[in-house]
Amino acid sequence: xSVPEFNMEAFLDCLSKHTIFENIPIKYAIEDNGKSFYxxxxxxxxxxxxxxLDDDAFDVTNVGNHLSALEFHKLVExxxxxxxxxxxxYESEVGHFKGAICLEVDTxxxxxxxxSEMLAEQKDRKILLYCTGGIxxxxxxxxxxxxxxxxVNQLHGGILEYARKIKQLNxxxxxxxxxxxxxxxxxxxxxxxxxxxxxxxxxxCDTHLNCENKFCHLLFIQCPECAQKYEKCCSEExxxxxxxxxxxxxxxxxxxxxxxxxxxxYRKSFLLAKKNTFVNSNSCSE
Length: 286
Ligand SMILES: [Zn+2]
Ligand SMILES: [Zn+2]
Fold this sequence. Notes:
alpha/beta; three-stranded antiparallel beta sheet
């Protein structure tokens, strides 16, 4: 949630007076345009991460070694270890750690099983996991340890904490591009670099949006020029549907049903799509 800077201390004081909030980790955003979680939302969920994993199948409390932002920074810099991005591909496409393994997956469940299979021959190596705020890594590290990985480490506080610390210490970031976040900003830039491309014309761009055709709602990257040309839609087809009258939509209802059901679908980057190959994994080399 957003708190005016001059009220921050009073807010933290007030929070710490409630025993349930004692020692709660606070994560600070580094960029704000007034849209960052401007109201507090509390949701009761059966699980913190909807990971689809059977919690009884492994010890979820046997987590990896927590590394501070600075420790993580130095280990990534050495280039000797396996750096693994535990987020989905729409997150890593716009920003990731240098040399990280970023998988082409839509869900955490896929991510975690694929990582374990892919690195099966490298169980003795030092593994450095990271995610947005460190929560997904709690689960991922326990899962990997259960599957025999010997030296599992994770970035404490995630990219959010890393970005804050790097700025504070004035260090050159080993995270390049934008950190995707789930509020209306859809991301905050960490080092100012744009590493992804508009999915329609290929120009450098890292702005995510959902297709304005409500039957499509595809998450994709679109530059301002294409946003104007396609009226914030992912295709000419969607633009036509968006502009159709209710009567026309009724008439073509069969064609206008959501293309992808309710699953979260993301279009791959322009350049990847152009290669026209489906790869299960790729190492982010940028
Ligand atoms: Zn474009
Ligand atoms: Zn669309």
